[in-house]
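Q: what sequence does this backbone want?
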């Protein structure tokens, strides 16, 4: 086994729990579907042929490895630690999500499945899923709350352009939760010929493991690039946390490097009351939602609470079980950045480096901008630049004009 493969193997688990978090809290009729995926995944995860195929598409289709770029002007303007950006924004389709869907679509192909389903809120995971389905000529159905289809009309068009069928879910509040329910219902009925593509390191076992493994390419590369470019490991890793896939992908390969500190940045939104933020670890409590145990934002009725963030991709009331465990065991620290701070970082990175970050990634940049000046010049921070901000330009334009 190569070094890279052995690092992956070392991280994998089979019981689905990270401390007390994770698991598979689902109706009985869903268990066969999930266990089928788990069994098939265990067959391929260390198979050299599967990994070579994944490697081929990550290189020639996604454009990996993504650079680890020294943001010199930003670092010098802050006067402290050196800030390096892991450039996931340069991937095909503009974010880290493609790493995960590429892995999962190859898994589905290995399973002989020709029909893919997914759910999407902001539309980004739907677009990534539709992209790889087009690449392999697979039938693709995306469930999306009707409200979200209106808010994200352009992403609906992108998915349709890529050949996907977008189903507008009209039940309940007509948002992500209802779309998840529809997708799970579909899966329970059709799992023999249908693969459910999950978009973040959340959900019941085996999804948090699968998504972590496929996103770990970020951290595996960043670790090797650190040793090559500055001859040692970084002092800090910083990443934004929605469900937690880009963050866990960066962090997990450094898990045993205890000198490397992990900071997950949660969306602080507009305030600390339920409905004003989406900071599941900072303001939430341990609970079971969407089939797994994690820190979650709950309302007084014991239901997932309302959330808010300027970054649609971070707007989720739960967080991955592995992050919940990292928090409980103090392996990582979780902090918040407000909408206003993220908007500021969006502009600063654009002006200092000529890189327009996604609003999600701007949360991580904002925290790095606070931390760097408190550190010495020989210290190194790696910020995961999870995506590019072109998708957010119109929204930021409106927000900035509203303020003036
Ligand atoms: C979806 C998304 C996120 C949040 O998802 P995670 O699973 O927490 O990584 C962050 N950044 C970008 C650019 C996204 O599209």
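A:
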């Amino acid at each position: 086994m190569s070094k890279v493969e052995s690092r992956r193997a070392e991280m994998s688990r089979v019981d689905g729990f990270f401390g007390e978090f994770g698991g598979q809290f689902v109706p009985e009729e869903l268990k066969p579907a999930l266990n089928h995926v788990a069994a098939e995944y265990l067959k391929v995860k260390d198979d050299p042929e599967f990994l070579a195929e994944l490697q081929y598409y990550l290189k020639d289709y996604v454009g990996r490895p993504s650079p680890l770029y020294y943001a010199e002007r930003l670092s010098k303007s802050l006067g402290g630690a050196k800030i390096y950006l892991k450039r996931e924004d340069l991937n095909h389709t503009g974010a880290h999500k493609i790493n995960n869907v590429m892995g999962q679509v190859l898994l589905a192909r290995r399973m002989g499945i020709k029909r893919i389903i997914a759910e999407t809120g902001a539309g980004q995971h739907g677009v990534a899923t539709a992209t790889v389905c087009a690449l392999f000529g697979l039938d693709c159905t995306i469930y999306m709350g009707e409200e979200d289809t209106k808010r994200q009309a352009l992403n609906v068009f992108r998915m349709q352009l890529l050949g996907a069928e977008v189903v507008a879910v009209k039940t309940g509040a007509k948002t992500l939760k209802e779309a998840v329910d529809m997708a799970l219902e579909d899966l329970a009925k059709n799992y023999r010929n249908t693969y459910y593509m999950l978009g973040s390191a959340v959900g019941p076992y085996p999804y948090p493991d699968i998504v972590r493994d496929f996103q770990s390419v970020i951290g595996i590369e960043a670790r090797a690039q650190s040793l090559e470019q500055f001859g040692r490991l970084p002092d800090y890793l910083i990443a934004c946390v929605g469900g937690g896939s880009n963050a866990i992908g960066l962090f997990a390969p450094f898990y045993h490097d205890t000198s490397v500190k992990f900071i997950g940045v949660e969306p602080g939104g507009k305030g600390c009351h339920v409905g004003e933020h989406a900071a599941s670890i900072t303001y939430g409590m341990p609970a079971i939602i969407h089939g797994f145990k994690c820190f979650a934002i709950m309302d007084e009725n014991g239901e997932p609470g309302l959330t808010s963030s300027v970054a649609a991709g971070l707007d989720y009331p739960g967080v991955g079980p592995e992050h919940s465990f990292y928090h409980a065991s103090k392996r990582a620290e979780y902090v918040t950045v407000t909408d206003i701070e993220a908007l500021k970082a969006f502009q600063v990175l654009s002006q200092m480096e000529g890189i327009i970050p996604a609003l999600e990634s701007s949360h991580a940049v904002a925290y790095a901008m606070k931390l760097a000046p408190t550190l010495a010049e020989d210290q190194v921070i790696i910020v995961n630049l999870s995506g590019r901000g072109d998708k957010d330009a119109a929204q930021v334009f409106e927000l900035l004009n509203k303020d003036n």
